[in-house]
Fold these 2 entries.
Entry 1:
Amino acid sequence: MSSNPQPGRRPLVYETPLAIRAWSRAFRCGQKTLALVPTMGALHAGHRALFQAARQAADAVVASIFVNPSQFGPGEDLSSYPRTLDADLAACAEEGVDAVFAPTGLAVYAADHSTWVCEDALASGLEGAIRPGHFQGVLTVVLKLFNTVEPDVALFGQKDIQQALLIRRMARDLLLPVDIHVAPTVRETDGLALSSRNRYLSVEHRRQAPALWKALSACRELLESGERNMKRVEAAGMEILDSVPGLKVDYLQVVDMETLEEPRNMGRPLVVAGAVRLGTTRLIDNIVCPPGALAGSSSGVNAS
Amino acid sequence: MSSNPQPGRRPLVYETPLAIRAWSRAFRCGQKTLALVPTMGALHAGHRALFQAARQAADAVVASIFVNPSQFGPGEDLSSYPRTLDADLAACAEEGVDAVFAPTGLAVYAADHSTWVCEDALASGLEGAIRPGHFQGVLTVVLKLFNTVEPDVALFGQKDIQQALLIRRMARDLLLPVDIHVAPTVRETDGLALSSRNRYLSVEHRRQAPALWKALSACRELLESGERNMKRVEAAGMEILDSVPGLKVDYLQVVDMETLEEPRNMGRPLVVAGAVRLGTTRLIDNIVCPPGALAGSSSGVNAS
């Protein structure tokens, strides 16, 4: 149901919730479908793959560009997070994105903002344990974006798998009329997952960074060979990470894809998820076993 | 912009989110507006006044009837809460309600539901202090109803003023495309605010119940006469409540209408709010000074 992309045409840019919603409603009342790709800008080939998948999923594509303050912790990189709006709009134009929602902070958070989306099962482990409050910020801003753009489908990258699964849970629990698609991680040729934060890496750290992917791949290999002792699987990955001088491991864990907890039922899909730090840069990545499991499961409550 | 009500015609009844949303979208894409009146059933004249106000506010009226388990605390009256669906549907028909959304519990809460709306400013005092978790349950179910029915406007009664102000705050903070209207409390001739819980009252307690309204009225009189010492205002109300044998006071408080905290800026609208218990029945009520302040303030972010 993809329409004609017009690569190179500059997308419509909206700055207020009222304006983008009016456009969205007019578009959809013509029975067309809308896909949203929420981003924090600093767009790379991973985002471009999301735009392309979005075009396959709906008649028009909206990108949002907003560095969401509430998902950064006190010591994190909010102020230094890369902001490259002109290049981002050019990338959107090249990918045939139809409209961009690029709001100011105050249009999204009133000075006395006090309402949050909290999730108390999937959000507690992995990234949630290391970054308290992070997912509350993510879910809240994504819900605001959904309420504003009113998409039929929204796309997220597998690299942030816990985020993607949490947003699916939110869509289901809050009866949101939005399907959540998760697109495969795009990687450099040496396996490093693309991330806006990769540009922070020094030459030496960039050279070391693919160790995370290597460790995850080693874990998957063990799982695929039939190993069911998760401690042994994790130890094989840790051995690879520990061999990299200066690399610090936040976690490397095998979890049940549905609960994000320690696997109890061996028949269910698994996620091997890891987070490491190289200098001041934090990298995350994951692998799903079996590989197709993530695309298969669905989403919110959509009439379409 | 009211359409022709057809009193006596039985409303369409929908049980699943998908069904009511499909009806709502088809209706609204014809450029018509929808009003939602969320209820827990056990409809009385206060709900009927909301249906009538809803008809003035939009082209069609949807009532939801759902006794929301998550807003009841462990020791509260969930299991005994009155359930009168047949009479409720008859009342909806008489008031010309166009569609009723009466879902089952499982359509609203999956067994592993884990996503909540939390508010950390307006929800902490008054009812929130006495009923921990209550407003988290209220906000979560109201958001689900909004996502399902997709109304342009939703109506709530002033009797539950903290709830109404919290829903307005949620609508603003989450950029919901819904205007929140608050309709005046409907009272018995002796001043008692209508409530589904009034039917629990014994004859003796029913006779004593108007004391709450009398106490609030005495507070308002003092405020209108220029008294600015809130302790003195509250004491005047407490004197009336304390004179009722067996009546227990949860709170009687004067608060700033915008923050629901102790008034600091004397130029702003005030709420006198009270909660009392007579036997096992809990009654709440409030008065706003000046009386028009509540209707004046607005709501979410609506394109209309």
Entry 2:
Amino acid sequence: MDKNNFAKTPPMGWNSYDYYDTTATEEDLLKNACVMAEQLKPYGYEYIVCDISWYAEGAGRDREHYQYLPFDTLSMDAFSRLTPDPVRFPSSADGSGFTKIAEKIHALGLKFGIHIMRGIPRKAAHDRLPLYGGKYTADLAADPGSICPWNPYMYGVRDNAAGQCYYDSLLSLYAAWGVDFIKCDDIAVNGLYRNEYFSGWHEIRMLHEAIEKCGRPIVLSLSPGPAEIGKAFLYEKNANMWRMTGDFWDDWDALKRMFERCELWQDHVKEGCFPDCDMLPLGMVGKGFGEERRTRFSLNEAKTMMTLFCFFRSPLMIGAELTKLDAETMLLLTNRALLSCLQDGSSGREIYRDASAAAWKNTDASGNVRIALFNLEDEEKTLSLKLSDLEEALPENALLTEIFEHTEAQFKDGVLTVVVPAHGVRAYFTTAQV
Amino acid sequence: MDKNNFAKTPPMGWNSYDYYDTTATEEDLLKNACVMAEQLKPYGYEYIVCDISWYAEGAGRDREHYQYLPFDTLSMDAFSRLTPDPVRFPSSADGSGFTKIAEKIHALGLKFGIHIMRGIPRKAAHDRLPLYGGKYTADLAADPGSICPWNPYMYGVRDNAAGQCYYDSLLSLYAAWGVDFIKCDDIAVNGLYRNEYFSGWHEIRMLHEAIEKCGRPIVLSLSPGPAEIGKAFLYEKNANMWRMTGDFWDDWDALKRMFERCELWQDHVKEGCFPDCDMLPLGMVGKGFGEERRTRFSLNEAKTMMTLFCFFRSPLMIGAELTKLDAETMLLLTNRALLSCLQDGSSGREIYRDASAAAWKNTDASGNVRIALFNLEDEEKTLSLKLSDLEEALPENALLTEIFEHTEAQFKDGVLTVVVPAHGVRAYFTTAQV
Amino acid sequence: MDKNNFAKTPPMGWNSYDYYDTTATEEDLLKNACVMAEQLKPYGYEYIVCDISWYAEGAGRDREHYQYLPFDTLSMDAFSRLTPDPVRFPSSADGSGFTKIAEKIHALGLKFGIHIMRGIPRKAAHDRLPLYGGKYTADLAADPGSICPWNPYMYGVRDNAAGQCYYDSLLSLYAAWGVDFIKCDDIAVNGLYRNEYFSGWHEIRMLHEAIEKCGRPIVLSLSPGPAEIGKAFLYEKNANMWRMTGDFWDDWDALKRMFERCELWQDHVKEGCFPDCDMLPLGMVGKGFGEERRTRFSLNEAKTMMTLFCFFRSPLMIGAELTKLDAETMLLLTNRALLSCLQDGSSGREIYRDASAAAWKNTDASGNVRIALFNLEDEEKTLSLKLSDLEEALPENALLTEIFEHTEAQFKDGVLTVVVPAHGVRAYFTTAQV
Amino acid sequence: MDKNNFAKTPPMGWNSYDYYDTTATEEDLLKNACVMAEQLKPYGYEYIVCDISWYAEGAGRDREHYQYLPFDTLSMDAFSRLTPDPVRFPSSADGSGFTKIAEKIHALGLKFGIHIMRGIPRKAAHDRLPLYGGKYTADLAADPGSICPWNPYMYGVRDNAAGQCYYDSLLSLYAAWGVDFIKCDDIAVNGLYRNEYFSGWHEIRMLHEAIEKCGRPIVLSLSPGPAEIGKAFLYEKNANMWRMTGDFWDDWDALKRMFERCELWQDHVKEGCFPDCDMLPLGMVGKGFGEERRTRFSLNEAKTMMTLFCFFRSPLMIGAELTKLDAETMLLLTNRALLSCLQDGSSGREIYRDASAAAWKNTDASGNVRIALFNLEDEEKTLSLKLSDLEEALPENALLTEIFEHTEAQFKDGVLTVVVPAHGVRAYFTTAQV
């Protein structure tokens, strides 16, 4: 198995976190899957991903003080492997884990993903519970010096036979459940420890090895960032996507900083290897965090985000509750001209960037070019782009169509000049393209 | 109670670590106490301190791989408080803890100290064991995000009522046992976490409060360093001593670096407040580490160490196995002229220092001055000191006696010039002084 | 000469910078001196200090773009020594430098100080101008790799004979002029370079040596901070005052941060050695910066500043234009109870501090105690202080008088409880004290 | 002009630094050019680059104390532009600069390059000398806060019209001289200043603009490193090569670290864009540094270096004195199988790397694969490579020929296993390839 074949193009789907925080239920997953199957699948969206704490029996309790309750009870099987909380995921009560949910999602023509924390449950290690296979116990796999700075569930896994046995057993279980996608947390960056104490670096390798052994093509997504550019080779060899930033929310400053990260990582976007801009915080979000609300991004900002993410070829994971999608957001998520940037063979590249503006191009396998001009300032501005900066055979007189508004534009004397609203974008394809 | 009265002068004694590592037994403590009572007590040595892991039932096992066994069994009472391993400390088998050992040590006219790790046993927190008083359980006091980077036993304690209750119960128990001295580990410096995650800062305060409540004058020693100079006020308000460096061993480069630390902290040596140079790695050491050996310090280096530590007024904790003390080491440890620098009212001060040499003075309450010239280079050197740099009424013609060799010297034309051996020292008192 | 005798108590005076920036003239200095002699001298203020750029012929030109004009013409004598700009300091036109100004200031019973930049004029080095004595040229003393990050005038001085010759000649000239105080800039902290390139560390020593040789007791003030605590010994051996922070202005956040710095440096306040809180930005300031304005400090904030600076025993250099002093500011600057904290033998010490409040005490040579409670929050608050925290023989029933408002207060059951306004202070002396 | 066309493949040539330090002369350049034309040109070597200090009249004087004499006299034209020292470069005495040397080198079928320091001569700025065009003077272009940490010649250039005018005039002069290659120093990394003070970032842009304006295809090489990966886009847009490390010499540890840098930068090797491993310190080097000597690299180490540099596709600049080339070094430099890795369309990629071993592949435009296994340890080792790791259509039974020794090898059961000497390499091409 070549892991780069598991995700030839950037994975697209939905993730429960932005709306549900730690509280998503079986019903929540399935109702979002239904919307996706009907409305979004034709555009390429296919993953339904259940985010953090699906095994935490008290998830969401005392939320004001704790996102993750210290010393909370985690649902676990006899081999130190976490299992879905049967209260929130009733179909798992018979011990079948996520099997039935995965089956229903597969039946809709979609794929199913879960979030995991790097490591092995702390409680299992302290109680020296057995690992699958009968050869080792959890304390032998666990590294008591390796913890997550913000989550109390797990210990990091040692780079030894017991550790690999644990990860192998985990992936074997997930494969049996029908999992297609794993988002592993606390692993893409060393957020707390000195680097020499961080076991995440070898846990990335161990997870990859376990996936290869399990025989099922499971996409591996690493979280959170900022991923370290000096570890690019490690990510590329072992994973399919890795987060370039910390948690991304609907905040304009965070979006501006994303331009810097996209510049840094643009040479690392390859088949099966996708630096990840994080979820799309659009539509209705925040319910599990105590405040159900509409995205704070203005329409211009949302277009800027979608254009950057697509031109760069980031994975696209929708954060919005899909049952509450409004038409405006739907249009953004399903803009075919934009989504075509994600196709196999396309490649994105920054043309210029400074504190006030940026320009990108995205070229498809046939050489068709899309261009985007971003206004990063707080006031409307006239931006320009030189034809010579495109380094491509775009004819001088090419007719350009704006991706969102379908207005037309042309280079004049080798320069394209457009008025771009504050925080907004003007993106173009050539008429022949779509 | 004013904690500064607990230690008006730098504490002097013996600590089990340098020789026994984690393996000291009841018998070991008592035989060292006997030697101290007979030979060292007249010079001011009085503390017998049992260092780390006295509660670890497997201490010393698999030493090649682990100094502290992960997920090892720790002896504990019903209230989440660690108790002595009854195998190594048989007198504790009846549940009396260190009471009987402390009694025997007190009967010798000595004082008794123990080492503790900052925090509460992890296992107690995961099992939600009760705390003394019946009001709280260990999980409420424990912070699962606060661990020690190199030791797997404990979680840091939260700054809340459950946490204070735990520390109060701990000190109450220690007071009942007859403990006179606590060396708390993993607390004087944030070795692993970002500062904002390090609970040690408030645990220092909580320990001090618990000592005040327990009603027994227990000296509080903080370890390991390098203590942060920016936290000097915190240490001074709450503790009696705090380590200025990481673990200090018989290594010349480490001793050279100690000069820098002594310069930095010299203004913070006060009654009840003693920046700490760490144990004296002299005589026979290293047995518990797998290699019983004589100190690697040459005699000149050992004199340099003793002179710096005494002039600076560091606590003096002997690391040597006392039953194996040789005459040369004994002479160093009991040099009255040198030890008089530790007396109440004395104060030490650097006169100059660069990479190749240093000079210190120590002035007693009566204004008598001792001076020391240190050669930090690898070859014999002639060092000098200007009388005017002493800022004291030392008469031009004062007769100086060398502290170790009893040779005499004098200032000539306001300058003292002496040949000092490589890595060595020449230290002087005025004849009238001792 | 013992430099600690030059300033047995914290120097007090006036500095031209806060009001005039780089533009002070002979007339400005003298008119401020007149006010000081009449109104402030009785309270201990005595230094008139001319701050930066007195040699810069274009000082103040193109101020919008540059505070210090690049490649500007500096007035210089034949030996690479900067001399006053004869346009702004007409009495220097005859080549007598600051002699006549110093004479007039001395005649008023005051002392005279000047600002210098660390180093030797760059132009002198590039033109290989001679140094005084005929033995060396400026290029031999200058280190072309040592510059100031924000000022283009000087190169750092090498630690060689040519360099010492230059500094000796400089101090010899200043002594001849009648200078009593030097504020040397770009020297107390390495603001730009890696430490190993920073020649300031040896220039501090060289300046001290030059002062000793010049035979005149010239106070040495080092600027700007934040001075490094690890260099405390260097400062104390060679200088009389050193800045604990970057430039301090009338900004509440900066004042709050000063509490942290005062805690850090409190053990280093000694006769002749004064960590420095920087100028008092009170009254009218800012004219040379393009905006003549009243201090932004509210009266409560100004009291907080004066109380902290006096309790800590910082030097007190007024930043206000003295000819425009209002009565309220005058009262603050001349509060005798407060200023008595600066007396010889007094010592200040923090009692507690956290993000919302702080308490200090200052004890004089006779053991009289003043106490201050600071409210660092944005709303009025009740603060308290335990008698036991004073560690002093203040009788339980001592009658306390507030330093600014002369209201009375007493400890009750060992606790003093007072309402303190937002950003304000309540400070007390015992009635017998003043 | 598209700067990526100036260097479609990694530039190859010779640089005077490793042998001559600052002292190369006209004669030295020409005699090395003769050797290159005869012996090395057939293999692709074509640049003769004169390194630092060709304008310094005293270059090499007092070498024991200074590599670059402070305040030395630099040969300069009337417009603040440095010109060759006429003593060492006699043909420039008529004011024609490097014109005649360039002509001779061109006549040999070679290209000519020079080293420059970022910036404008300090002396010119202090003397306010004119810039070409009569509109500006040097002080307006110079930033007195921007210096090189280790070289005293220049000030950084401001991002203004005067600054661009200076760089334009410089490139215009160089184009007139016939310069084909510029190695600009103190520009690829901020070695001294805080980033916000470093003018090099905009000077990279300004130099590129000046090259575009000058009309001559001049290759731009940036030095020294370690270049910042976060600035990759800046380098790629404006330069042709940039150093990945500090100065590289014949030191095994430095060579081992180069593997890490090659991994980091491998995705940035593109047509016209070459991360640079620095000169090849082979053959005879060091004369100008005071010690003429043979390279310290063993033959195995030299092969490791050549193989890594070629597989990665670094520029290849010989450091050896060419007139003293021995046969062994000559063979290394002219290995056709190895040099073919540099061809247009080839691309290199790390396969694995840890502290003890590394493997690389290099694939040419036709899909032919070369592979290399490096032993980074101090003892002979057996290394292996899985066919599946090559991701290429190399047939299972492909016959491999070792690049240096012409021995043959084959994969067995999908694994290639070879014994590799300490510090050495085994590199293979398939028989059909060369």
